[in-house]
Amino acid sequence: MTQTISKLFNITYPIVQGGMVWVSGYKLASAVSNAGGLGLIGAGSMYPDVLQEHIKKCKKATDKPFGVNVPMLYPDIEKIIDIIISEKVKIVFTSAGNPKTWTPFLKEKGITVVHVVSSVKFALKAEAAGVDAIVCEGFEAGGHNGREETTTFTLIPMVKQQVKIPIIAAGGIASGRGMLAAMALGADGVQIGSRFAATKESSAHQNFKQTIIDVKDGDTLLTLKELTPVRLVKNKFYTEVQELYKQNPTTEDLKELLGRARAKKGIFEGDVENGELEIGQIAGLINEIKSAKEVITDIITEYNTVKKTL
After folding, report:
1. Going by C-beta distance under 8 Å and a sequence separation of 6 or more, which residues neighbour residue 154?
2. CA–CA separation, 228 vs 258, rounded Å?
3. What is the pTM of this model?
4. Residue 44 gets which letter from DSSP?
């Protein structure tokens, strides 16, 4: 097992927990970090004061490294960055924006910066911006996704040919087998979202966790590409989106249907019919709600077992 990512973050296993909206609070992040991975607090669904509270609680819950995931389209990005600096967070994952915007500033503050990309083009831009590593996230992933629809296991080797910095594979990985396959293709570590969304420490509503357990192959689809592509579970809201598409809607029509806080309604409040249920294709392999520690133990055990049998 490569030690590149473990050394970069000073963690035991090269496993990063995705910083998912309405899922990745301090309880999940600290549990993953305590189990030997890298926990991330998802700032995308937090007001600045809420993020600060979660960072403080995470410091009390673990003495291990953890980080914050920051979507750069966030309206209060300056306040978020100020809090990260003032709370002395050492690791930041950025996404949904130009890495040149904040990477130099964060690096000057001694922060390790990782950027999420979905193509070779953006991987090269992130490397040029000076990030320490990149997360290459494929089409299989849940939540907001790249427009290119490139799968993880196609993306990883293509990026590996082009960049020199460490690569973290994301999208469609929830097991030791998946981790081993990603690393065989050139990844130095993995970022896992959906499997950690269905854990005891996840801040998602129990209804959403049960939906993850119930999802089978083919039950999610990428949609709303005119706004920001997002992979959703096929529920009542998803059906309404597809019906609207039959009317050749404008971008404004789609925005009106989406409304505000649709993801919060589904993921955090548990309205699994009218909410936006963001989860990856790999949910079809998730059959049980476990603790974050159990998930990491299972992944590492399977990784080592399968590696020996090949």
Report:
1. 138
2. 11
3. 0.96
4. G
- By the 8 A CB rule, do 202 and 279 touch? no
Q: Domains in the chain, please, with CATH?
A: 9-203+287-309 (3.20.20.70), 206-281 (no CATH)
Instruction: Tell me which residue has tokens 């969304």.
Output: 197
Q: Are 167 and 188 in contact (CB under 8 A)?
A: yes
Please report, for residues 37, 66, 174, 189, 296, the alpha-carbon distance to residue 17 in angstroms, rounded to integers and kept in the order given: 7, 10, 11, 11, 10
Tokens of 13: 């296993």
Which pair of structure tokens corresponds to residue 122?
């953006």
Helices 251-258 and 236-245, axial angle in degrees (round to 10): 160
Looking at residue 264, what DSSP letter applies? I
Alpha-carbon Rg of the chain, whole angstroms? 18
Query: Cβ contacts of residue 53 below 8 Å, gap of 6+?
Result: none
H helix count then E strand count, the chain: 14, 11
E-strand stretches of the chain: 15-17, 39-42, 66-71, 91-95, 112-117, 133-137, 143-144, 167-170, 189-192, 220-223, 230-233
pLDDT tens sequence across 249-258: 999 999 999 9
| Contact by Cβ (8 Å): 11, 36 | yes
Query: Which tens digits make up the pLDDT trace of 279-309?
Result: 999 999 999 999 999 999 999 999 999 999 9
- Chain centroid, CA 271 distance in Å: 22
